[in-house]
Structure formats: C-alpha cells, structure tokens
Design goal:
This protein has about 325 residues and is an alpha+beta fold. It has two domains: about 10-120 and about 310-320, 3-Layer(aba) Sandwich (NADH Oxidase); about 135-300, NADH Oxidase (3-Layer(aba) Sandwich), CATH 3.40.109.10. The protein has ten helices and eleven strands. The strands form three sheets. It has a five-stranded mixed β-sheet. A hairpin with an 8-residue loop joins strand 3 and strand 4 (about 95-100). Helix 1 crosses helix 2 and helix 3 (about 105-115) packs across helix 8. It binds flavin mononucleotide (FMN). Flavin mononucleotide (FMN) binds next to helix 2 and strand 9. Flavin mononucleotide binds near residues 25, 58, 62, 267 and 293.
C-alpha cells in the first residue's frame, strides 16, 4: 500500500537532525540511501576505526544511535518509521530498511526531537546535586522499550566499576596502538569527523574548568572524584542485532536525559579489553547481560559554559542516491 512520502524539505530536515547522533570517536560510520520510497541504513566499513571486535561493536552501536535519532526526527515531523533490522542475512553491513507511514506526532516525539540539537557529550565533572530516582527509572524504561536495559552502579558495584575504569585508563597510557588511533581520529583542527582539537584532553587545565574536556580514558582515571551517576547499558544477547538495539537504546537514554536537563557522556573504551568487559559483566551486571556502553550522567556544574558543538560530515556525504520523490 502507498502511504505517501515526506516532501524533500521534511526529509532533509529529519536527516540533518539524525546525523547529530553520537558516534564512537565521532567517526559517523553510517551511510543512508533512499530508493523507491524506502530508506536503507548501512554500516560504512571504511569508517570503522579498528577491525577489532570492539571496534565493530562500537560502530554498530553508533549506527543504532543514528537510526533512533532518525526515527525520532521523522516521528516529530509526522512520519512513523517501520524498521526491518538486518534485512539481508548475506550482508551484515546492511543494518536496516525503513518504510514510512503517516503519523500524528506526540508530545513525546516533539520533546525528544527538540533534545537532539541540545545533546552533547559532556566529559567534564558533574555537580553533586542528586538525580531524582524517577528520572533514572524513566531512563531505564526508555532503554527497555528499545530492547536493552540500564543498571545503575551503586555501592560495591560502583566501586568495582570505578576500578575497571581506572584500570582501563592505566592500560591506555602504555598502549601504542590506542595512542596512534586517537592521534588519527582526534585533534583534527577543521575536519567534519573525529574529535576536534578543542574537545580532546587538556590535562594541564584545573579540574572542573570549562576546558577540562577529556577523552574517555582520561575522564575514567578521575572518575572516583566525580559525582556522575554511572550506568551500564546492556543487552541479553551480544550479536549484531543486539548491538544495533543497544545503539537505539543509547540514543533513547541520552535524549531522555537531555530532555530533563541532565548532562551525559557515553564511554565504551573500557569495554574494548575483554577482561575489563568481563569484570563489568560479572561485577556490575551479576553475570546477566552483555555491557554495550557505560554512561556518566548528572547535572552540569553551576556556571558551566555551553560546550562547543562537535561538527558533522555534510549530509550529502552520508545520504546517497537521494531521490526527491513526489508525494
Ligand atoms: C558507541 C559510542 C562510544 C563512545 N565512547 C566514548 C568513549 O569511550 N569516550 C568518550 O570520551 N566519548 C565516547 N563517545 C562519545 C563520542 O566521542 C561523541 O559522541 C562524538 O565525539 C560526537 O560528539 P557529541 O556526542 O558531543 O555530538 C562514544 C559515543 C558512542 C556512540
């Protein structure tokens, strides 16, 4: 059945919001194609920062985040996305096909869509103001709706998680391959991917100052002095479908938190080391589920300045064979 199709302006506006999704190292490893009233999302394997299992996982999770951002942006503009995940078993990089049907936007769609441009990865220390338990409950509900779950690390679990994050930071110091990869993808002064120079570690800056923006491993090393709540996003399986859903859940969680004014930071570097990932699985998740991301979440410090925007690739670089189709 033909349900119509969004006009060109609506589609481009939705994609422009979708690509604000977070991605590991800001590599934006996604590619969209539109043909015959259908959107296709693929993993751009040339943009996966490393061929390791964790590199692939982070890239698929990032694509899940862009898929959820697109779903939200479309829903807010009156189109519901009907998604088939991994539609072709012979092509694991073909992650989703998306059909569109007219939809009456809800307040929820509008609120999450409005949160997209406001969400930023905030690597600074957070304030000590507590997060109301209802907010964390809501965040978990949103993760569950996408096929994942959230575990808040408290008491002994928090101590064990902080120890893992610190071990991850310590390993990074002596890891030449990590340093090479970070150098390749970060400190780029003008490019539209990777981490721009203004968002990488300023180790000499005083704690809490607006310039103490740090990459994952250095923030992890100071996490014991931080008031952020630590959450672990996990899935019950660990295959590509679960990782895609984890990315959708990550997006839902980050946008939900942003919508209520919370600052957020996703971390997956500690999951790159199988032994550290196993320690999180056992020590925080009680052996149930597979960790897909660690999240720092909290209130920005009073007077914290607005973060600079992380750039994105041009829409036409990620949206192929764009065909404006008449309604
Ligand atoms: C799967 C995934 C893993 C990430 N891992 C880390 C990490 O370990 N450390 C970190 O500082 N940021 C991490 N990030 C955040 C990205 O660096 C960030 O999304 C990207 O630079 C774009 O910036 P923005 O989120 O401010 O738009 C991760 C994001 C995703 C989606």
């Amino acid at each position: 059945m033909n349900y119509g199709w969004p006009d060109d302006h609506t589609l481009r506006a939705a994609f422009a919001l979708a690509v604000r999704a977070p991605s590991v190292g800001n590599v934006q490893p996604w590619r969209f194609r539109i043909s015959d009233h259908r959107v296709h999302l693929s993993l751009d394997s040339m943009r996966v920062p490393s061929a390791t299992e964790s590199g692939q996982r982070d890239a698929v999770v990032s694509c899940g985040a862009v898929l959820h951002h697109l779903r939200i942006a479309l829903a807010a503009s009156g189109w519901s996305a009907v998604v088939r995940r991994l539609p072709n078993a012979a092509d694991p990089n073909y992650l989703a096909s998306i059909d569109l049907v007219p939809h009456r936007p809800t307040m929820f769609d509008s609120a999450l869509s409005a949160a997209i441009p406001r969400r930023q990865t905030d690597r600074r220390h957070f304030s000590s103001a507590p997060i109301p338990p209802g907010y964390l409950g809501l965040v978990n509900e949103r993760a569950v709706a996408q096929g994942a779950s959230i575990r808040q690390a408290v008491d002994g679990a928090r101590t064990r998680l902080v120890a893992v994050l610190q071990d991850s930071a310590a390993r990074a110091v002596g890891d030449p391959s990590y340093r090479l990869e970070l150098a390749d993808w970060s400190g780029r002064p003008t490019t539209l991917d990777g981490l721009p120079a203004r968002k990488i570690p300023q180790r000499s800056a005083p704690e809490g100052s607006p310039t103490t923006i740090t990459a994952g491993r250095s923030v992890a090393s100071r996490v014991d002095a931080d008031f952020a709540e630590l959450l672990v996003l996990s899935t019950s399986a660990d295959d590509r479908l679960a990782q895609l859903c984890a990315g959708e859940a990550l997006s839902a969680v980050l946008l939900t938190a942003t919508n209520v004014g919370l600052a957020t930071c996703a971390l997956t570097e500690p999951l790159a080391v199988p032994e550290l990932r196993r320690r999180i699985r056992v020590g925080v998740l009680d052996g149930r589920g597979y960790p897909q991301a660690v999240l720092r979440i909290g209130w920005a410090q009073a007077g914290a300045v607005a973060l600079p925007c992380t750039p994105r690739r041009a829409l036409d670089d990620v949206l192929e064979r764009y065909e404006a189709t008449a309604c």
